[in-house]
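Thread title: Can someone regenerate the structure for this chain?

I was given the following input by a collaborator and told the matching C-alpha cells would be attached. They weren't. Posting the sequence so someone can regenerate them.
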Amino acid sequence: MRKLCTACLVALTLLVSIAAAQRPRDDTPESRGFRCRSGQRLSSKADSALIFVALSVPYDNLTFVRGQQDGFAARIEAAFTLIDNEGKLAAERSVDIEVLTKEFKETNSRMLNAVRTEEFYVKPGDFKVSVVITDRETKRKSRWSGEASAALMDSLLSVSDLYWLDRDSLLNEPNTPRVIENFSNREEPALVAIDLVSVAKDTLLISWTVSGEDKKPVVTQSEKIFPTGTVQHLEYSVVMKNLPVQEYKVTFEAIGFGRREARDVTFMVNIPGVPASISDLGQAIRQVKYIATAEENRRLRGPAVTARAQLFREFWKKRDPSPETQRNELMEEYYFRVQYSDEKYSTHRPGWETDRGRIYIMYGEPTDIERHPFESGSRPYEIWYYHNLNRRFVFVDYTGFGDYTLAGPQWGY
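Best answer:
Regenerated them for you:
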C-alpha cells in the first residue's frame, strides 16, 4: 500500500475530525471557550465609576438543541464578578442568555458569535474581573479572567476607554462593545467609539488617527465640538476596505481648557474568511508548517505583506472541502486546534510549538489519554491513543516543568 505524505495524512485526519465533529473533552473551568473584554465608560452617577464587561461566545462552543418550533436554541448562564484591589467583592451578577438560529449549519459556526454586555457601577479603583459561563445542557463551565480600572469623572474633561461597536447584539442594544478586534479588508467600515464629558464653555479640538505598524498615519480626522455638560457619545468610522493585512492603532485625542486626554485601541486587518483567532498573518503562516509542503512553506514566507496575504488565501482555498460555501471548514478546524494548543499546552514556548500541541494539531483529540504524573522511579509521562489510526504517542516530562517531549510515535499497540 502506498504511504501518504505527512501533509496529506494531516489533511485527511483534519477532514475526518471535521466530519466527526471532534472536540476536546476538557471540562475544567480553565478550558476557556469564549472571549471577553472589559473597560471603563463614563458614569452619570455621582461618586461612582462605570465598568463594562463584554463577552462573545462562538456558536460552535454552544450546545444547540432543536426547539419546539423550527430552529435550534442554546442556553447559557453567565456569571460576572468584580474584585477590588483589597480583595473584596465589588460587584457580581448572573444572567441567562438564549441563542436562537434557524439554520443547523450555523450551530457549528466559529464565525458567528453570541454577544452580551453588562455594566457595573463601582467605586473608583482597579479590579480583577472574572466571567464564568455554564452551558445549561452539558453543565460545562468555562472561565475568563481580566482586569479593569475606573476613575471618577473630571467635570472639566473626561473620556472613557475606546471600544469597537458590535452590530450583532443579542438584545439589539445600542453602543454594544465588540470583543473581537479583527476585521477583514473586505468588510464594511467599522465603528470605534468613546464617551466624553465636559462642562467647560469653549470648544474642544477632537482628532482621530489610524496608523499602521510603521507608526505612520494612514488617515487623520479633526473637528471642533461644543461640550454639552453631559456625557457625549462620539463615533468614528474606520474604512477597512483594501487596507493591507497588518496591525493598526486608532488614537483619539481631546484638547481644550489646558487639558489633553488621549486613548488608543489596536485592531488587526486579516484575510477575509479566516477565523477571528488569527491576529498575526506572519504567525498564522508559520503555523501552517504542519500541513504545508516544503515548497509552500518557502513561498508563504516571502517578504511582501500583500504577496503573503494572497498566497495564504490561495493555500487555504486549495484545501477548502466545500469551496461552494463561504466557510473553509478545514482552515477553521486547523486554527481552532492551534488556539486550543496555545491555551492548553503552552510552557516556555507557545503551545502550538510544543510536541503535544503539534500532535494535537496534526491528529486532533486523542481517543484516550493515559496520564502518569507521580509514578515512583519514573519521570511524568502521558500516552495518547488514536484507535482510529492504530497509533499511539508517548510524551515524557524530562525537566519536571510540564514541558512534555515526544519520546517516539508507535504504530499499533
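The CA atoms of residues 52 and 239 lie 26 Å apart.
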